[in-house]
């Protein structure tokens, strides 16, 4: 009972963190379309939150096709997969205990 409640809480917190990071990526992608001021603190925060993940993906595969950067789309798909598969699997495991 305690373990299942703990695992369910962990699954819910991980789900929330993934959802927040998805919104950070979406906002960062939308802001990048308007040529933002690089000295703006919000822009700097968004860059610090997204660029480390983007750089890891860019090292593995080409992500710029005809001037269109698809790294945010790849990260969003990966996060959705993690959320729908692993987090849901953890929640189902917790419910079965």
List keywords for this structure.
mainly alpha, 2 strands, 79% helix, YggT family protein, membrane, CCB3/YggT, transmembrane helix
Integer-rounded radius of gyration? 17 Å
Share of β-strand residues:
under 5%
The biggest sheet amounts to: 2 strands, antiparallel
Helical region count? 3
Large-scale geometry: elongated
The span between the termini is 7 Å
Provide the structure class: mainly alpha
Notes on the protein architecture:
It is built from three helices and two strands; from the N terminus they run H-H-E-E-H. The longest helix is centred in the first third of the chain and has 31 residues, at 2-32. The protein has helices at 2-32, 41-60, 71-96; strands spanning 64-65, 68-69. It has one domain (2-96). The protein has a two-stranded antiparallel ribbon with strand order 1-2. The protein is elongated, with a radius of gyration of 17 Å. With 97 residues, it is mostly helical. Pfam families: CCB3_YggT.
